[in-house]
Structures are given as structure tokens and as C-alpha cells.
């Protein structure tokens, strides 16, 4: 199967690409290949590649940065995802969109389920939910995977931050009002790769 992966240089994609390459013809694209906020650029890329399955990992994931630059968050996470969904519909590709637990407000006393009501509190969560809504409205064949607290060998993440701080300081101070489920990129990647079999 011909598979396209956006955000190919990111932390999750670096784990996903090797998993996919075992079974599929894979094309990885990133910022330097085309601008996902440009409908024409996305359309051309998908017409050229003609993927049967698209893993849409490209996103503006800097949570604090999204608060400072909501326009960029909207362009990448909402508009870019809409463009990707529209082009997937045009070429007949299945889309797997990687979203986030930030679409919830974090007040639940139990792990969230996929059918729980969404209520994002910040720009990042709103932008990723906007992407989800475009995927759901424009496609009939899609997956949405909500991830949380990703960590892995590449990229900025909570685990790497704590390890760095532990090496540099005698005492660590961290917030104690947040709960999450740290997700190792290689574990998630192996499961995401399996989704291409259910197209």
C-alpha cells in the first residue's frame, strides 16, 4: 500500500516510519516539502503521491506557543487538517489524524473515553478539536487517535525535561496538579502502523 506520513521529521513519525516501511511504500513529508496551510499545495502533493492511507502527524504542538500565536495554531492544526482531509477525500485515501487529550478539560476522575464530551481549555486543544471536526465532516473513512504526554528518543518531551533537570539540579520541583498517561512513541507507533490494515 502507498502511505503518506506528514510531519515526517517529528518525534512520533521517527518511530512510525520504520514500522510502516516493513509492509508499505512510504512517503514522508515535512515543512520543507509543502505548506499544509495551503490548500493548493496539499492538493498537488496528494495528487502526485496518490496515497491510499495518510498519517497526518504534522501539527503545531507547542502548547504555550499556541497561546502566544493562536493564528499559527489555527493555520496549521485547523486549516492544515481541513486541507489534508479534503485532499484525502479527493484521492480516496483513508486519513489517520493524530489528535490530543487536550480536547478535554482535564477534570474527569477517570480516564477519558473517545465518546466523552470535549471541552478544550486552551488554544492548542481548540485547534486540534477543530482539526478533528474537519476530518469527521469531510471524510467517511478516517481514524482519530488522541494521544497524551508523548515521549521518545527525539523531540522535546516531559521525560527528557525531567531527566535533564535531574542531571543539573540537586532537587526537582514539579507541579502536582496535573495527571496524564505518558505514551512512549515506539509503543504508539507500532499500534498506529497496524491501523493501515483496517482501511
Question: Keywords for this structure?
Answer:
two-stranded parallel sheet; 16% strand; alpha/beta; single chain; 199 residues
Average pLDDT reading:
93
N to C succession of SSEs: EHEHEHHEHEEHEH
- Give the terminus-to-terminus CA distance: 10 Å
> Helix- and strand-based class?
alpha/beta
* Tally of alpha and pi helices: 7
| Anisotropy-based shape | globular
Described by strand count, sense and barrel closure, the largest sheet is:
5 strands, parallel
Instruction: Please list the strands of the largest sheet in the order they lie side by side.
Output: 2-1-3-4-5
Range of helix content? 40-55%
Number of strands: 7
Low-confidence stretches are none
Beta-strand percentage?
15-25%
Q: What is the radius of gyration?
A: 17 Å
Describe the structure.
The protein is of the alpha/beta class. Helix content is 44%, strand content 16%. The strands form 2 sheets. It has a 5-stranded parallel sheet with strand order 2-1-3-4-5, with helices on both faces. Strands 6-7 form a two-stranded parallel sheet. It is globular and about 55 Å long. The chain starts with a strand and ends with a helix.
Offer a concise description of the structure.
This protein has 7 helices and 7 strands, in the order βαβαβααβαββαβα. By secondary structure, it is α/β, with parallel strands linked by helices.
Secondary structure elements and pairings:
Elements: E1 2-6, H1 11-21, E2 25-29, H2 39-49, E3 53-56, H3 63-68, H4 70-91, E4 94-100, H5 123-138, E5 142-147, E6 150-151, H6 158-168, E7 183-184, H7 185-195
Parallel strand pairs: 1-2, 1-3, 3-4, 4-5, 6-7
Helix pairs in contact: 1-7, 2-4, 4-5
